Amino acid sequence: MSIRTLGQTGEIIAGKLLLARGFNVLEQNFTCPLGEVDIIADKNGTRYFVEVKTRSSLAFGRPGEAVTADKRARLRRLAEYYIVVRRFNGPVAFGVVEVIHQPYDRRFRAELIEHAW
Fold this sequence. Notes:
Shape: globular
Strand order of the largest sheet: 1-2-3-4-5
Structural class: alpha+beta
Largest sheet: 5 strands, mixed
Strand content: 35-45%
Order of helices and strands: HEEEHEE
Radius of gyration: 14 Å
Oligomer: single chain
CATH architecture: 3-Layer(aba) Sandwich
Distance between the termini: 31 Å
């Protein structure tokens, strides 16, 4: 499986996980001049900005560990942009969905870190 296909599959799985956990997925791959947010979702009036990290092994650590301080700061700026453009006045949260592809049984495992920071 190519890296691109792995990432796209991870985002599909993340969207399904969020729906199963009671989230309403509002946008996927929201793009603006500042960059891209993988998923924007709502749950009980809170707008979640979700980063999806997909890996094919844990050799380099858990997928969520790849969300560095720089990445978190960029997501904050993207959220601020979204809030202004969409005129959203409610609470905001940041989440991470870790997706791990287990090639030995061709399965994916996904975990949500609902309030990642």
